[in-house]
């Protein structure tokens, strides 16, 4: 009996112990789970406090930003650089050879903008460069591959660099255009209209002289010589007896009559590489054009305004030296297409001596004018004539 009672008590005791242990474990587990939310809550509270602090700091920064922006906005935003296409008055053709990608940053209103890329096309090599004329050395380090200076009174050669080279002459052509127009003796007061036929379909250059514009023959001639207006020169050739083909034939006939054996013309503007000549021939053309008072006057004007029937247009000379009081220029003409490079012909008086200066295939927008200055300085101190040419053995005079 006692044994049975003891066994029962033992069983009850074991159950009690196990229950106590189970309860203890349950309490411990519950306590740990209760502690976790509290810790998470504490972390959440800390995070919220941190975010609030950051938000307050950001608000303070934004409050200060308007003052900085206002200060920055006083500066004019930099203009965004982009590919430039011009409708120039001179015979500017697209300058292209190989493409390379250039990126520019646009910053409107002093804010960071996106990166934009444009295609930049460097200028193609001229005919003179292609044939190595620029490799001819000269003591003045000229940027022109062809340079020729002649005393207008005596025809003495004062400077010679590749004067016999036959190269494109661009808008130097317009001196011949002007002579043919004046030789026709057609009324200078006649009205001439610009049409689609006068557009440049070879180089695709633009013009300020819109289709439908109407000017007198005199005004067309004026802006063709002074500002190298291509559509004016094209329209003049159309209003010639027999039309444009007859005009081009007259240009070549005039060149032949002047003894210009290296010269050929295909149009009246110079917007073609097929209008070619040599520096020696161009001296003959300048001397002939110098005999026309209107060519002397129109080519050396600084500016001229015309009314096209639609609006007023203000034109300026393409020759920067015309605005330089230190130069005494009696006649001039500029020109440019890629194949010809930068060109310039002038009649000028240097130290009281009348000279004709021819510069062809110059590399660089202002290099022809700088070369003219170098030649004038050379003439100021001239001793013996300077001949540096690929054909040095030839006769000196044209």
Characteristic key phrases:
alpha+beta, 9 helices, 398 residues, two-stranded antiparallel ribbon, Beta-lactamase, 6-stranded mixed β-sheet, disordered C terminus, globular, 38% helix
Strand order of the largest sheet: 11-12-13-3-4-14
Can you give the mean pLDDT? 79
Cα separation of the termini: 156 Å
**Number of strand elements:** 14
Q: Please write the string of helix (H) and strand (E) elements.
A: HEEHEEEHEEHHHEHHEEEEEHE
Task: State the CATH architecture of the domain at 127-387.
Answer: 3-Layer(aba) Sandwich
GO molecular function: serine-type D-Ala-D-Ala carboxypeptidase activity
Pfam families: Peptidase_S11 (PF00768)
Family: Belongs to the peptidase S11 family.
Protein name: Peptidase S11 D-alanyl-D-alanine carboxypeptidase 1
Q: What is the gist of this entry?
A:
Residues 44-102 are annotated as: Disordered. With 398 residues, the chain is an alpha+beta fold.
Question: Your description of this structure?
Answer:
With about 400 residues, the chain is α+β, with helices and mostly antiparallel strands. It has a domain at about 125-385: DD-peptidase/beta-lactamase superfamily (Beta-lactamase, 3-Layer(aba) Sandwich), CATH 3.40.710.10. Helices cover about 40% and strands about 20% of the residues. The chain contains nine helices and 14 strands. A hairpin with a 2-residue loop joins strand 12 (about 340-350) and strand 13. Helix 3 crosses helix 6 and helix 4 (about 215-225) packs across helix 5. The longest helix has about 70 residues, at about 1-70. It is globular, with a radius of gyration of 41 Å.
